[in-house]
């Protein structure tokens, strides 16, 4: 299913015969803002396949994507009154909600194993109170060093190594090419290692 290029294009549902024009979708979202359940079902039927595709592309996991899609449509139900057809097409507005929700989900994922400089982030675990204190000190030192990187570099490092985002996902989020993200990460980690004295 593709986004329309003009008013006469059709949003098709996956596996169904129903179709809806862009203008009909605009009107359906307006009715959803007035809590019209039939309009909501129409919006869902016409757009869920596309939004699911966006979410799957970002997350890569169908089990999580199912839950995120449900949350997207809860937001659509709650925020339909915020849609302005003068600012964006309905599918663009819906896709933005889906993309942002999927990226928010990435932030909640556990930190992935480090592939560039694992020693920068490695803090051994122990039951010893003294070791816990030393780990807290190491974390504070790491945080101070991260603050020295500058906002953009710090943000990219955290997205990659704390939130577990891929280079491509970071590039989409900050609006930069993947090659620029890779360069930023490489330079940031080298700078961080310098601050940490490693």
Short description:
The protein has 198 residues and is mostly helical.
Word description of this protein:
- It is a single chain.
- With 198 residues, this protein is mainly α.
- Helix content is 67%, strand content 3%.
- It is built from nine helices and two strands.
- It has helices spanning 22-32, 37-59, 62-79, 90-107, 118-121, 129-148, 151-161, 167-174, 178-196; strands spanning 10-12, 19-21.
- A two-stranded antiparallel sheet has the order 1-2.
- A hairpin with a 6-residue loop joins strand 1 and strand 2.
- Helix 1 (22-32) crosses helix 2, helix 2 crosses helix 4 and helix 3 crosses helix 4 (90-107).
- The longest helix has 23 residues, at 37-59.
- The termini are far apart.
- Residues 1-17 and 110-128 have low confidence and may be disordered.
- The H-and-E topology, N to C, reads as EEHHHHHHHHH
Number of strands: 2
Secondary structure class reads mainly alpha
Note the overall shape: elongated
Widest sheet: strand ordering: 1-2
How far the N terminus sits from the C terminus, by CA atoms, comes to 51 Å
Major sheet summary line: 2 strands, antiparallel
Strand residues, percent:
under 5%
Radius of gyration: 22 Å
Q: How helical, in percent, are the residues? A: 55-70%
Number of helices: 9
Unreliable segments of 5+ consecutive residues = 1-17, 110-128
Mean pLDDT level: 76
Topology:
Elements: E1 10-12, E2 19-21, H1 22-32, H2 37-59, H3 62-79, H4 90-107, H5 118-121, H6 129-148, H7 151-161, H8 167-174, H9 178-196
Antiparallel strand pairs: 1-2
Helix pairs in contact: 1-2, 2-3, 2-4, 3-4, 7-9, 8-9
């Amino acid at each position: 299913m593709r986004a329309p290029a003009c008013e006469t294009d059709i949003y098709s549902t996956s596996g169904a015969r129903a179709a809806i024009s862009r203008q009909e979708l605009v009107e359906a979202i307006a009715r959803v803002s007035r809590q019209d359940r039939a309009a909501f079902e129409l919006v869902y039927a016409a757009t869920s396949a596309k939004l699911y595709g966006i979410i799957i592309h970002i997350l890569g996991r169908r089990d999580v994507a199912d839950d995120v899609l449900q949350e997207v449509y809860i937001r659509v139900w709650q925020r339909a009154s915020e849609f302005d057809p003068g600012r964006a097409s309905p599918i663009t507005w819906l896709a933005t909600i889906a993309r942002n929700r999927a990226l928010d989900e990435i932030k909640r994922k556990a930190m992935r194993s480090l592939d560039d400089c694992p020693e920068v982030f490695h803090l051994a675990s122990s039951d010893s109170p003294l070791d816990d204190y030393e780990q807290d000190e190491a974390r504070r030192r790491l945080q101070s060093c991260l603050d020295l990187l500058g906002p953009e570099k710090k943000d990219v490092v955290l997205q990659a190594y704390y939130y577990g985002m891929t280079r491509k996902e970071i590039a989409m989020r900050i609006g930069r090419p993947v090659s620029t993200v890779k360069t930023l990460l490489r330079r940031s980690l080298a700078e961080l290692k310098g601050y940490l004295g490693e």
